[in-house]
Amino acid sequence: MSTVTTTKPAPTAPGQPSVAAPRGEGRIGLRANLRHIGALVRRNALQIKQDPESMFDVLFMPIIFTLLFVFVFGGAVSGKGNQSQYVSYLVPGLMAMMGMNIAMAVGTGVNDDFKKGVMDRFRSMPIARSSVLLAKIVVEIGRMLVAIAILLGMGFILGLTIKGSIVDLFLSIGLSVVFGASLMWIFILLGLTLSSAQAVQGMAMMVLMPLQFGSSIFAMPSTMPGWLQTFTDYNPLSNLADAARALINGTPVGDWVWMTLAWSLAITAVTMPLAVRKFRQKT
After folding, report:
1. Please, are residues 133 and 279 in contact by the beta-carbon 8 Å criterion?
2. 254's torsion region: left (phi>0), alpha (psi -120 to 50) or beta?
3. Helices H / strands E in the chain, number of each
4. Tens of pLDDT along 31-42?
5. Distance (Å) of CA 74 to CA 87, 131, 154, 162, 199
6. Which of 26, 83, 235, 267 has a Cα at 20 to 30 A from 158?
7. What element of type H or E holds 171?
8. What's the CA gap between 199 and 120, in Å, rounded?
9. Closest CA to 244 of 74, 65, 91, 103
């Protein structure tokens, strides 16, 4: 995505012809845009290196959630002594949950950058405005992959078996990443719109809690009341959880994969232009 910046011509002395800027000097091409994204990705990665505590959610959240739901709720959901069966149901669903929780960090990070004056420095640089947002998404996708890897590792320790092919496993990971990346645009828009990082977190939790627990991530919808089953059927997290579950457990995927991709495309198509426009207005 390219951006055009305007450059004022240098003032000239009276009676002298004005010197026009070379044609195309203000245009940022694709190659330069990619260089800017790469440089900003490196900046964000160095920030993580200097602040390793920012990785605590990625490192510990998969472990805590897996142990909590398997050993506290697993017996109630699947029957006492059947926790290993619940692992095969839960872990693919948690892949969807990881993407949503990590996506929330993008919004708070963007909001913090404005509060700390980081964006003031970017404003004075001849870089594409969209590269700032894209670099954040690339880094968060990397964090998401680390969280999913730890989640799967915990699943294997607790008895998870991959009954599908290795291609199906990577496809389930890819679906989680694509859907999580689409959600990041929602949280970026919230981070650009709301006044503080605390407000972003509060609004995010109001959205996250109903979507997560009103889905097929933790329990089968057939055990829920009829009105909640209807909500679950239209919940995009349920589509992703069911698609990942079917791919990993080697069962028919139905339309869940295509529905997840459709949701991801729709969310990105609506929120990405709004987020980029809001970002340009603020910078």
Report:
1. yes
2. left
3. 11, 0
4. 777 887 888 888
5. 8, 43, 15, 19, 34
6. 235
7. helix 166-193
8. 22
9. 91
At 234, list the tokens.
Answer: 């239209």
Q: What's the pLDDT tens digit per position in 101-131?
A: 888 888 888 888 787 777 767 666 666 667 7
Distance in angstroms (rounded) separating the CA atoms of residues 214 and 208: 10
- Biggest CA-to-CA distance, the chain: 92
pTM: 0.81
Tokens of 251: 């069962």
Residue 161 token pair: 């078996």
Two structure tokens written together for 260 = 């997840």
The tokens describing 145, both together, are: 């992959």
Do you know the residue count of the chain? 283
Find, among 101, 117, 73, the residue nearest to 220 by Cα: 73
